[in-house]
Specification:
single chain; 501 residues; alpha/beta; Rossmann fold; GMP Synthetase, Chain A, domain 3; seven-stranded mixed β-sheet; 15 helices; 26 strands; 29% helix
């Protein structure tokens, strides 16, 4: 799919900028196609062919895209290592996919096993010199026979609850994602902003339709709130996209109110839950509706969403309903749907879902069952048909014999006016087994809420066993490489504090 897409885009859009960096440097559609042809020849000369894995440990930007397109032109599968990974995490990624070749910058080569074939790349914004050590001019690569089942990319889970896994996707899924995201109607231009790392599922699986649309993709190797605000204003973009943490940083930028953001007609946020206080503030200050998108790496970035005209209950407290082409069910431990209002595991059926976990048949068999994807997320369905998240299956803890779902508690506590952000984590307890600790970033650091205030605030909506038994005030919640709440780090901190006691 990708080779045909970029060839068609180069014919249609020629010198239009496909990518533009923060410095203003750009790469045209013609450059993108020609350069990826030359790199494809270089990859083939190094023995990379159909079914082999190319691992990219590169900054997000045009060179990453060129290498991805080049690999697709020789039938190889591209895996991406998020530039924000630690060396040890990068080593785990490499070990998972056993790549035939790794392209890395010197700064992003740490942790790669010594027995891998690694070619170092010097980053540049000059299209004529991009990946120049790999390029072989004037040498064509044979066209591939179209194969919907051919693997194209491997996208790694964020690893917030364990070691990262590589979800792999074929041409069939990338085609389905293009249809589901665009309705099959590709435009002829526009401006897009890459707000996540290129290794993220939101880029790897969506790049085909973005290139087919003729868009100019603005690149931020390192996400910056001030730069994004400038792009939104300069290009009069109709929507702002990102994860909840990024929207919060935009709102807290000191120059936010100095920008003309009147063009914004929607705020579309994925990558995890959005605290109710954030949704409320963003809707007010952007003067635009806020849509929460629920998905996962395994689902191909496609799932559920709240409506742009949702009422407060849907917008603030749910992840909405399945998007077109997606089915969702909440099932119990026996695999059967539970009654409305009961908590169970969210299952999805969508043509965008991964083919499996690379090199992990056991994990694949557990996640993909009879055409359904087990998400590992706990949820319930309300009378309006909206889905309410209750946390991860692995995040649930048991207090005195009763199940406690952190997201359910956070959704209630997060409406307290003294809370900016909150996470609930378990702490071992000699009597109850585990208790809940509310880890709070206060709205006003000089007047943080007390435990008694939180309990009083949550008592009308939560059973007593769900209420926190302790509180910890911090400056900010830890985030992982995917800008999601790092619950593993919080739990480790809590365990360390408990051990210190």
């Amino acid at each position: 799919m990708l080779p045909r897409t970029i060839a068609d885009a180069a014919r249609r859009f020629t010198d239009r900028a496909a990518f533009r960096s923060a410095s203003g440097a750009s790469v045209s559609y013609t450059d993108l196609d020609r350069t990826s042809d030359e790199v494809a020849a270089g990859l083939a000369a190094r023995g990379l062919g159909e079914g082999d894995v190319l691992l990219l440990s590169l900054p997000s930007g045009p060179e990453y895209a060129v290498a991805y397109l080049a690999a697709a032109k020789v039938g190889a599968v591209t895996a991406g290592a998020n530039p924000r990974l630690r060396d040890s995490e990068r080593g785990l990624v490499a070990a998972t996919v056993s790549p035939t070749l790794v392209l890395a910058t010197e700064a992003l080569a740490g942790g790669l096993p010594d027995d891998l074939a690694v070619e170092l790349v010097n980053p540049t914004e000059n299209p004529g010199r991009m990946l120049e050590s790999l390029r072989i001019p004037d040498q064509s690569v044979p066209d591939l026979v179209e194969d919907p089942g051919r693997g194209v990319c491997i996208c790694f889970t964020s690893g917030s609850t364990g070691d990262p896994r590589g979800a792999w996707f074929t041409n069939r899924q990338l085609t389905a994602i293009a249809e589901m995201d665009t309705g099959g109607s590709w435009g002829s231009g526009g401006q897009l902003i890459a707000g996540t790392a290129f290794a993220h599922v939101g880029v790897m699986t969506k790049l085909p339709w973005q290139l087919a649309s003729g868009a100019t993709i603005h690149v931020m190797d390192r996400w910056d709130a001030g730069h994004l605000l400038g792009l939104l204003e300069q290009h009069r973009l109709p929507a702002v996209n990102g994860v909840a943490a990024q929207i919060a940083l935009l709102l807290r930028h000191p120059d936010f109110d100095d920008h003309d953001l009147s063009s914004i007609r929607a705020i579309v946020v994925g990558g995890g839950p959005s605290p109710p206080a954030l949704v409320h503030e963003a809707r007010r200050r952007f003067n635009a509706p806020y849509s929460i998108r629920y998905s996962s790496t395994e689902s191909g970035g496609i799932g559920l969403g709240t409506s742009l005209d949702a009422d407060d209950d849907e917008a603030l407290h749910t992840v909405g309903r399945p998007r077109s082409g997606v089915e969702a069910e909440v099932r119990g431990d026996d695999g059967r749907p539970v009654e409305p209002g009961q908590v169970g595991e969210m299952w999805l059926r969508t043509p965008s879902a991964m083919s499996g976990y690379w090199g992990d048949p056991v994990g694949t068999a557990a996640a993909l069952v009879d055409g359904w994807l087990r998400t590992g997320d706990l949820a319930s369905v309300d009378p309006a048909g909206c889905h309410r998240l209750a946390g991860r299956v692995s995040e649930m803890f048991i207090r005195g014999g009763y199940n406690v779902y952190p997201l359910e508690v956070e959704a209630v506590l997060g409406t307290h006016p003294g809370i900016d952000q909150v996470a609930v984590v378990p702490r071992p307890d000699d009597v109850l087994g585990e208790i809940g600790v509310a880890v709070v970033v206060p709205s006003n650091p000089d007047q943080p809420p007390t435990l008694e205030q939180l309990i009083a605030h949550g008592r009308s909506d939560l059973s007593s066993y769900k209420l926190p038994a302790a509180i910890r005030i911090i400056d900010r919640l830890p985030l992982n490489a995917g800008d999601k709440l790092d619950r593993r780090a919080l739990a480790a901190e809590e365990a360390g504090l408990q051990a210190g006691d």
